[in-house]
Design the sequence.
């Protein structure tokens, strides 16, 4: 599908279903846009038209594993503290 070409009717419906499946599997709008040679805005609009509930910014956090195990996050930030705000052990 060439970039900038208008997609209407059943072709748009099929494309919307494909993009919806990819998005619900955890792919980002940006990744879907790149795969299909379309803009971020086009994919966002198609997903919205298809009734998809869009995730908030920051990616797919559906499994919640990072939130359920506070000891799992031991990343040290630029100021020497972990993301939890507690002093990092060195």
Sequence:
């Amino acid at each position: 599908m060439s970039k900038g070409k208008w997609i209407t009717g059943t072709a748009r419906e099929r494309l919307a279903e494909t993009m919806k499946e990819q998005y619900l599997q955890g792919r980002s709008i940006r990744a879907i846009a790149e795969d299909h040679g379309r803009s971020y805005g086009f994919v966002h609009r198609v997903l919205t038209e298809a009734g998809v509930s869009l995730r908030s910014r920051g990616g797919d956090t559906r499994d919640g594993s990072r939130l359920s195990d506070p000891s799992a996050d031991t990343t040290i930030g630029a100021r020497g503290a972990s993301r939890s705000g507690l002093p990092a052990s060195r």
Summary: The helical segments are 9-24, 29-36, 40-49, 65-68.
